[in-house]
Amino acid sequence: MPLAQVPGGFVPGVLTSAALNAGLLVGRPLFVRKTADQSVTSSTTYTDDTELYGDVAANCTYHFVLEAFYTAIAAANMKTKFTYPAGSSIVSASFLGNWWGAFTFSVCGTDGEANTIDGKTTAAPFTIFGLLVTGGTAGEFQVQWAQNTSNATATKMLAGSRLTLVRCE
After folding, report:
1. Helix count (H) and strand count (E) of the chain?
2. Strand partners, 84
3. Is residue 11 part of a domain?
4. Which of 51, 124, 146, 154 is 20 to 30 A from 12 in CA distance terms?
5. Which CATH number characterizes residue 54's domain?
6. Percent of the chain with pLDDT over 70
7. Rounded to 5 degrees, what are φ and ψ at 108?
8. What is the arrangement of strands in the sheet containing 139-146, beginning at the earlier edge strand?
């Protein structure tokens, strides 16, 4: 669980949802690091990442960065997107991939969606960064991902992948 769920507020050295929602962390990053590999096989249905998520407060703006490491065979590739509270929107999001000197850059869809992330059988990185504006509802900002084409060979989001959320206002 990426956030310490401590009722009542801020505990020094521990990031809590209450501290985030109380506005105590404007400008301070929420950093979540994936500690174990996660696999998806034979599925193009988006799946919640088990570790890459965090709470966001209502009526705020966040800069987010997903720095991911993955493996997928070329026949399956990978796709990813984000979910967030009702009334919120991603006003801009971009994808950056670096596969051993071959950079790719593209603008993502309105839900931060990046389709057809090229399959790589050895650990490869990609980054998605953007701006989330929340509406009147607080909730979870969640990374989701799946195979782009269903395949029996596992597509994996690897340990060491990380999500950073910085509340801007």
Report:
1. 1, 12
2. none
3. no
4. 51
5. 2.60.120.760
6. 74
7. -85, 170
8. 47-56, 139-146, 78-83, 114-117
